[in-house]
Design goal:
The complex is a heterodimer of chains A (about 400) and B (about 290).
Chain A (H helix, E strand, L loop, with lengths): L4 H26 E8 L6 H20 L7 E8 L4 H14 L4 E5 L2 H13 L3 E4 L17 E3 L4 H14 L5 E6 L2 H16 L4 E7 L7 H8 L5 E5 L2 H14 L4 E5 L5 H12 L3 E5 L6 H14 L7 H20 L5 H6 L1 H5 L4 E3 L2 H8 L4 E3 L18 E7 L2 E8 L2
Helix pairs in contact in A: 2-10, 2-11, 3-4, 5-6, 8-9, 11-14
Chain B lengths: L1 H30 L7 H19 L2 H24 L7 H23 L14 E3 L2 E3 L1 H23 L1 H11 L1 H6 L4 H26 L6 H15 L5 H22 L4 H15 L13
Helix pairs in contact in B: 1-5, 1-8, 1-9, 1-10, 2-3, 2-4, 2-8, 2-9, 3-8, 5-6, 5-8, 6-8, 9-10, 9-11, 10-11
The chains are: A alpha/beta (about 400), B mainly alpha (about 290).
Chain lengths: ~400, ~290
């Protein structure tokens, strides 16, 4: 038998249709695809790997419990590189090639703000850990498909102002990394601080990746502040604090927890970091859901769960989404699942702490998932209000002195 | 006044780093005749090698030497494995190849050391106060290192036989060849010098900031801006232009603000390209 060109050309599409189409259709009925878009590299790299591993682990747990709404979760993992351009490319690939129905775990406001137009256009859910106030409202969240598992930068700023007042500071100055998150922090602080009748004595917005921040520091130090409030990330904070320490000034610092963390102490040593006030949201540490997450995090990452608040948020994203899928029933579309997010996360309802318990309780009625990261009650904007832990760096250790609620 | 002097000092140190990178770029452009985009990542490699050297020996000097050696070795390896094979191809082919080399180095470093930032564990010291002006002992040391490295490059270029041959090749490759100058030896010397200069810039930058796989790539644009400003192919011009850029960026901040100080490098570069395409010191022939 001879195979001519026409037969061959005809056979190729036919085999594609016969061979691939059924399996693809089957896969779509059985699995619900989600994208894990996390900062594995770049400024968010201390957290990204843990976040991605927790999304995978939580999806495994959901699947082990028989799936959600009759479907298995299938995770496609990507690296946002903590850069908007890279994140947009990855999100496009997740949406158009992998056909995911939700993107989980974007970190850094620049990234989330760049990705959200894509998820909105595709009518899929975005769950982020970014702080920019703009993510709450239209146009970013016009469709109500975005959920924020971290406090807004504005809430961080308000917490900073509470702390600055409690510590008795008078002359506050601010330094912000030039992006939505950095500026969101310092503006939130400024509003709350001025509402308390104080004045910001100096403020600077600086660019990333500079060989030196001495000019910026000089401007701030010239106003003789007693505290400098930062909206910053780890690399720039490292450089700024090193230069500050070498000026010999003795003012205090209030820095968000993603910048003032153990890596910062390791980089600068205990002497230069002594007394820095590091503020971060605290996980829902007393809840059974946190204990459960903590055990998984220790197993997967070999570190305590408290070392990565974003991993707890990423864990909660999968559980919340899966519970909403379960509540929405078999083969529900994204809109129907989105309808059920507050139904499974907000009060009232039976308090549940794991996916398996939630799935069982959903058979009885409304539930209220208490997350590992916070109690996870979404307001009308899809924002949560966690409490803030206030850590003082003492002899190279981050010691939590108190918790602030706003 | 004190404020301005401190800005000037900060600018000088930044400028020396930019100048070293620009010198490396301009040497390669003058002699091998293509814009070398791997210069930034050779910097990064130098910084990581210095970190390793410093951790192993405890001596910053030994670390710096290890960094410079690693940068020189990687640079010669890139020549032997990639650029030499493409010799005679168009400038664009070589430019694209150098971007490829840059990616390979960066990805290799990220794989080996991870993306988390690393820092040189050196003691932080309080500044000296001279007439109210804060002067950092570390800055002086780094500036001296940069100046010494620059001097070494210029001594090599202008006072040694191999330097004379390098300049001859830059002037007229075919004439140099018929005069009996081996192009390979000149090229190896060029890549050694260019690699070491970049690596030293990387070590200095790493000491002042933090070491991460992307650090050098981000210095590439200021480096190119300075090379163009100084007159591409002109070594002294590159160094002077680096200093001008560094100082201008810092001194301009009270006027243009901190957000736009980076843009200043590009405004200067645009002006040069529009008004004086040869650059400040450029002659069309390049290195002599």
């Amino acid at each position: 038998m001879t195979i001519d060109r026409r037969t061959l050309l005809g056979a190729v599409p036919a085999s594609l249709v016969l061979g691939l189409a059924p399996s693809r259709a089957a896969a779509q009925t059985q699995s619900f695809r989600i994208g894990a878009l996390n900062p594995v590299t770049g400024a968010g790299s201390p957290y990204g790997t843990g976040m991605q591993r927790m999304i995978l682990a939580a999806a495994e747990e959901v699947n082990a419990a028989g799936g959600a709404g009759g479907r298995r979760l299938e995770v496609f993992a990507e690296d946002s590189q903590t850069q908007p351009q890279a994140a947009v490319l990855a999100a496009k690939k997740l949406i158009e090639v992998n056909n995911v129905r939700a993107i989980l775990g974007t970190w850094s406001s620049g990234v989330s703000l760049a990705v959200i137009p894509l998820t909105n256009d595709a009518n899929i859910i975005l769950m982020n850990t970014s702080g920019a106030p703009a993510l709450s409202v239209p146009p970013a969240n016009a469709k109500g498909l975005s959920y924020r598992f971290q406090a807004t930068n504005d809430r961080f700023g308000r917490a900073f102002a509470e702390i600055a007042e409690r510590e008795g500071f008078r002359r506050a100055a601010t330094m912000a990394f030039n992006n939505a998150s950095g500026i969101g922090n310092t503006q939130g602080f400024r509003r709350a601080w001025e509402a308390k009748g104080h004045r910001v004595v100096a403020e600077v917005v600086y660019e990333p990746n500079q060989p030196s921040y001495r000019a910026e520091l000089q401007r701030i130090l010239a106003a003789r502040p007693d505290v400098i409030v930062m909206g910053s990330f780890l690399p720039d904070t490292t450089i700024i604090l090193r230069e500050w320490f070498q000026t010999g000034e003795t003012n205090r610092w209030i820095i968000p927890g993603w910048a003032a963390n153990p890596q910062l102490v390791q980089a600068l040593g205990p002497q230069a970091t002594e007394g820095i006030i590091s503020v971060d949201t605290v996980s829902n540490e007393k809840a059974p859901s946190f204990a459960h997450y903590d055990a998984v995090y220790r197993r997967v990452m070999n570190q305590p769960g408290t070392s990565n608040v974003y991993a707890a948020m990423a864990w909660d994203m999968v559980i919340t989404l899966a519970l909403a899928m379960e509540a929405a029933g078999p083969n529900a579309d994204v809109a129907a699942i989105n309808e059920k997010i507050r139904f499974v996360a907000n009060p009232p309802g039976e308090e549940v702490f794991t996916f398996a318990a939630g799935k069982a309780a959903l058979a009885r009625g409304k539930i209220n998932y208490q997350g590992a990261s916070s109690v996870l009650d979404f307001d009308q904007f899809g924002d949560v209000t966690p409490d803030f832990g206030v850590y003082f760096i003492t002899n190279g250790q981050l010691v939590r002195r108190y918790v602030v609620a706003i | 006044m004190v404020f301005w002097i401190e800005l000037l000092i900060a600018g000088l140190v930044s400028g020396l780093v930019i100048g070293l990178v620009a010198l490396s770029i301009t040497l390669v452009f003058g002699i091998a005749r293509f814009p070398n985009a791997s210069a930034g990542d050779i910097m990064t490699l130098g910084a990581y090698a210095a970190l390793a050297g410093h951790a192993a020996t405890g001596s910053l000097f030994a670390g710096g030497v290890a960094g410079a050696a690693a940068g020189a070795a990687a640079s010669v390896a890139a020549y032997a494995l990639v650029f030499r094979r493409l010799a005679g191809r168009s400038t664009v082919a070589l430019l694209v190849a150098s971007i490829g080399v840059a990616f390979v180095i960066r990805a290799g470093l990220a794989l080996a050391f991870g993306h988390a930032q690393q820092v040189f564990q050196v003691p932080l010291v309080r500044p000296w106060r001279i007439e109210g002006v804060r002067v950092h002992p570390n800055d002086l040391r780094l500036a001296a290192t940069a100046a010494a490295s620059l001097a070494a490059v210029f001594v090599t270029l202008y006072l040694t036989p191999i330097g004379r041959r390098m300049r001859a090749v830059a002037d007229d490759p075919s004439l140099a060849r018929v005069s009996g100058i081996s192009p390979v030896r000149v090229m190896v010397a060029l890549w050694l010098v260019a690699g070491a200069a970049c690596a030293i810039a990387g070590v200095i930058l790493g000491l002042r900031t933090v070491v991460s796989p992307e650090m050098g790539w981000e210095m590439l644009l200021p480096g190119f801006a300075a090379a163009i400003l100084g007159g591409i192919g002109n070594p002294a011009g590159a160094v002077v232009a680096g200093l001008i850029l560094g100082i201008a960026q810092e001194m301009a901040t009270p006027f243009v603000g901190f957000t736009y100080k980076i843009a200043l490098a590009f405004v200067l570069m645009l002006l040069v390209l529009l008004v004086r395409p040869r650059g400040l010191f450029g002659r069309l022939e390049g290195v002599r």
